[in-house]
Amino acid sequence: xxxxxxxxxxxxxxxxxxxxxxxxxxxxxxxxxxxxxxxxxxxxxxxxxxxxxxxxxxxxxxxxxxxxxxxxxxxxxxxxxxxxxxxxxxxxxxxxxxxxxxxxxxxxxxxxxxxxxxxxxxxxxxxxxxxxxxxxxxxxxxxxxxxxxxxxxxxxxxxxxxxxxxxxxxxxxxxxxxxxxxxxxxxxxxxxxxxxxxxxxxxxxxxxxxxxxxxxxxxxxxxxxxxxxxxxxxxxxxxxxxxxxxxxxxxxxxxxxxxxxxxxxxxxxxxxxxxxxxxxxxxxxxxxxxxxxxxxxxxxxxxxxxxxxxxxxxxxxxxxxxxxxxxxxxxxxxxxxxxxxxxxxxxxxxxxxxxxxxxxxxxxxxxxxxxxxxxxxxxxxxxxxxxxxxxxxxxxxxxxxxxxxxxxxxxxxxxxxxxxxxxxxxxxxxxxxxxxxxxxxxxxxxxxxxxxxxxxxxxxxxxxxxxxxxxxxxxxxxxxxxxxxxxxxxxxxxxxxxxxxxxxx
Length: 505
Prior knowledge:
By secondary structure, the protein is mainly α. It has 2 domains: about 10-205 and about 260-435 and about 465-495, Up-down Bundle (Growth Hormone, Chain: A); about 205-260. The chain has 21 helices and no strands. The chain has helices at about 15-40, 40-45, 50-55, 55-70, 75-80, 80-100, 105-120, 125-135, 140-170, 175, 180-190, 205-225, 235-255, 270-285, 290-300, 305-330, 335-355, 360-385, 395-435, 445-450, 460-495.
C-alpha cells in the first residue's frame, strides 16, 4: 500500500478537491464559531449583568443543542439527502448566528445559541461522512487530515479576529462576523456537493430521540444550576436527577430492543470503535474546556484585554495545526503512537497550567496553549481513523454521529464541572483566607510588608479583599486544571486496548 503522506495528484480528481475545499471551509466555520464566542465571555458577563456560571450557559447549552441534533444526522441524510441537509444547516447556522448578535438578554442569547448549536450539529459529522464516502479508504487519512485543518484553523482565526472585534466594537460582532463565512460555505455546497438518494419512507426513532433529548437537557440543567441551588438541597435539582436517570434508562433499553434505533448500539461490538468511543468522550472533556476557562482567568486575574486573550487562544490553534501536519508521519505505522503522544501533550499542558500562580506570564501561557493544541491536533485524526477501521461504510453516518455526540457530551459536562470547581474553590478559599484578616494577626503590624493593603482604612480593606479574591480564584483554576490533567493521563492506559491496524495510516 502506498504511503499517504505523499499523495500523487492523479489519485485525487479536481471534483474531489473542490468538495474537500468546501467541507474544510464548513469545518472552519463551525470551529470558528465556538472559539470566537468564548473570547467575548467576560464582556458578555458584564453586558448582560450575569454571573460567571450563568454566562457559561451560552457555551454549554450551545453544545447541548449540538449534542441532541448530531445523532439525527444519519436519519436526516437518508431522509433529505446530503446536499439539501448541508444547505439547510449552513443557512440556519448563519441566521441563528446573526440572531445571537441581536440578543438583549441572557435568556434570548441562550435560546439563539441552542439554535446555533442545533443547526451546526450536522455540519461536522455530515462533512466527515461525505469525505469518507467520496474518497477511497486508502485516502481517508489524507482527506481527513486536510479536512481537519479547518477544525484547527478555526481556533486560530476565531479568537484572533474575535478578540480584536470585541475589543474594538462589541461582543455582538463576534457573531455577525460568522455570516460572510457562512455565505461562502453555502455557495460551495450549492455548487459542488451532489445529492444522494433519499428515502422519504424512512422514519425517525422518535422514542429514542425524545428520551435522549430530555435526558441530556436534564443533565445539563442540573450541572449548570446545581452549584447555584446548593445541589441536593434543591427540589429542582433532585427532580432533574430523577428525570435524567429515568430517560437515560428508557433510551438505553429502547435502543437495545428496537429494530431501527436512534443510535446503533451494535457499533460498540467492534473493539476499536468501543475503545475509541471512550477516548472520544475523554477527548471532548479536554478539548473545549480550557477554551472556556482561559478568557475569564486571564481577564479577571491578569487584566488581559480581549485582543491578547485571542492571540493566546490562537497559539493553541497553531499548536493544533502543527499536530495536524505531523500526524500522518507520526502515526503512519501505528495510530496508537499519535494517540499516546496527543493525550500526553494535553495532560502535560494542563499540568503546566496547574502549576502557574497569580503572576503567570504571557510566555508561559502561550507555551502551554501551544502544547495543548499540539495534542489536540495530533490525537484527532488517528482517533477517528482507528474508530472506523473495521466499520462497514454503510454505518459511517451513524458512527460519525455517535462520535461527535460523545465528544460534545464530554465537553458540556466538563465545562460545567470545572466552572463549578472554580466558583466553589473561590468561595471556600476566600472564606478561609479571610479568617486571617483580623486585628490579632501580627502581619498587620509590619506596614512595609502590607504595602497599600492598609486594613485600617476602607480603601485598604477593599484592596485587600480584592487581592484575597484573586488568590482564591487562582486556586480554583489550579484545581480545575489538575482535574483536566488527570483526565488526560487516565486516557493513556486505554490506548493499549486498541488493536493495531493491518494497513498503514
